[in-house]
Amino acid sequence: MIELKGLNGESLVFDGATLAKFRHNGLDEAARNPVSTYREVQVKHKPGKRGKEGRYDVLVAMSSFLSLSIAEDAKPLLDELVAALEAGQ
What we know:
Distance between the termini: 16 Å
Number of strands: 7
Radius of gyration: 13 Å
Strand content: over 45%
Largest sheet: 4 strands, antiparallel
Helix content: 10-25%
């Protein structure tokens, strides 16, 4: 299981068969998609300005679109999630 935690209490959870998006620190499941519907991942880097930490904006295209903003230090976990999604396709 891979859990990618976002900056605003949202997260993406990959369990091997599905990718789910949770809101409110895991209390509310917003969407769940089977891995077979995976199409692509778009990642945009937003560098930090004026002392703020940079972030990555992630958009996962499946049967629905899942978006998440993550801290720069979570990039290795994002790469692991993308590799797992592409392997399960």
